[in-house]
Amino acid sequence: MDSNFGNIKFAVGTDDKLTYSADHFGSAQFFLIYTLNLQTKEIKLQKTIVNKTPEEHRHGDPQKALSISTLLQGIPVLIGRYMGKNITRIRKKFIPIIASFDLIDKSLVILPDIIPEIRSELEKPGGIPKKIIHLRS
């Protein structure tokens, strides 16, 4: 969280930039990077990152988790339709949010409603696993 401006950065895993990836978050072709202003609740797309991390050698490959963590360093919230086995590894650095629907735009409307829950997880000390938050319509 950027406390100077009251913003939270989050990454969305997608293959088409409209819907969540049908695969696990870390296998998405792109990550859309947004900021959520905590005061105004305004959400802005900042950039798109192409996922060039290596393919997994096996399901839940720790190297894949490390690659995603490095690529998305400084972005504390990850949102996807599905999270893979590596969710247990990333929860010490990131807050995973699992959407119960496919459309990204729908999340952008609902996300401000869970700001208190996100803040609570952000306040946990480093190294403590963050709770998995479910985003429901």
From TrEMBL:
Transmembrane annotation, as ranges: none
Dinitrogenase iron-molybdenum cofactor biosynthesis domain sequence ranges: 23-98
Classification via SUPFAM superfamilies: Nitrogenase accessory factor-like
Superkingdom of this protein's organism: Archaea
Protein name, UniProt field: Dinitrogenase iron-molybdenum cofactor biosynthesis domain-containing protein
Organism: Candidatus Lokiarchaeum ossiferum
